[in-house]
Amino acid sequence: VSTQSTGVAGDITAHKFECKPVALYSVHRHGTRNIGKKVIARIDLLVKALRAHFKKHPNPDLEWINDFVHHHKRNKDLVLEGYEELHSQGIRFKTAFPDLLSSPSSVQVGSSYKGRCISSGLSFLSGVFGNTFRLENGTTIEKTTKDIKRDCGHMCGVYAPLSNDESYPVLRFNHLDNHLTRYYKDCENYVKKENTKMVWQKEPNEWLDHKQMKNLRKRMEEKLGVDLTGFDMVTLHIICALETAVPRLHSHSHFCDVFTSPDDLYITAFYLDLLRWAGKMMPEAVDSSGINAEY
What we know:
mainly alpha; two-stranded parallel sheet
């Protein structure tokens, strides 16, 4: 279930079942998270270069760069929106399947060992049951999982089941290490190429020199008044995506404005698609040393 499906596409409560559901199995991705230190390094390099150029060659269209702050942290824990996304999913599931989700004791939940996945699971359960249950292994999870209870704001109550007393209905939260939770380990490209950077980067990097990317880079350079590399183009795309995913941190995205049309974003997005096809699941896997930091 997509964590971004909060509109019509994700409204399962509108579905009219022609039979009576007797069991429910669902797989969920964790909620929106912080971006990690490698992506931040790429962003910081590009912003530093843009500020340096603006200082030498003032450009009214680039003046906003002096005040830009991305607000993202260097960890990969959930941001507040991530908690809210899964909590909202839980509410919708409860509405759609009231009989199947009538009691915590009838539910089994599992996730990978990542804190963001555990936090997402707890947020979903909070949407379904509130905090009226306890985790059988809550004490163990709380003691062994370091990257939880961060940036949860008004959603921190999702962790109450970790320490609720024995008067609450019990639910066990299992740590899983299988084909669903660690799916990339079954990806042939990932397994074969994880230690051969030049192999898996070959096709994505060829796209950076493709005619469409070169034409887009030329338009961007004229708009910003700076020289850009292919990696800079991808970084611009990533910043735009981050500002769209967490609007609470940005009332307006100047980086999205740099792209003239959605078609421009498809060009840079295709590079990220090639990365994933080549076996790298996340864009931060790209070596940030490829960014042009001097103008």
